[in-house]
Automatic annotation (TrEMBL):
<dbReference type="InterPro" id="IPR023163">
    <property type="entry name" value="SMc04008-like_domain"/>
</dbReference>
<dbReference type="Pfam" id="PF06844">
    <property type="entry name" value="DUF1244"/>
</dbReference>
<feature type="domain" description="SMc04008-like">
    <location>
        <begin position="28"/>
        <end position="93"/>
    </location>
</feature>
<protein>
    <submittedName>
        <fullName>DUF1244 domain-containing protein</fullName>
    </submittedName>
</protein>
<dbReference type="InterPro" id="IPR036810">
    <property type="entry name" value="SMc04008-like_sf"/>
</dbReference>
Length: 103
């Protein structure tokens, strides 16, 4: 398989993951993703910004989040993100102690 075909497939997979997390499953909270998978939608935005900046494209945190969420993060958060429960916060802290931060 050529490099360009590999890149096209990877891009399609990324877009599908993005749509799934943002549009299909907005009910899954970012903190739950962090607890279970070690990354969340905001991590995707950080990685997106890192990749852009590695290629000489300046991007703010807000611009990267809008690229992932498809709208300003504050709007998406107000509609879909609930306040973390004490149980979620405790689980998140426990995971942070046992697993190094992914990149």
């Amino acid at each position: 398989m050529s490099d360009s075909t590999t890149t096209e497939i990877e891009a399609a997979v990324f877009r599908r993951l993005q749509r799934h997390l943002v549009q299909t499953r907005p009910d899954v909270q970012n903190i739950d993703l962090m607890i279970l998978a070690g990354f969340c939608r905001n991590c995707l935005a950080d990685w997106y910004r890192d990749a852009a900046e590695a290629r000489g494209v300046a991007m703010t945190k807000d611009q990267a989040r809008e690229a992932i969420y498809g709208r300003p993060f504050a709007d998406w958060k107000a509609q879909h993100q609930a306040q973390a429960t004490p149980e979620q916060l405790a689980a998140f802290e426990a995971v942070q102690r046992t697993h190094p931060k992914g990149d």
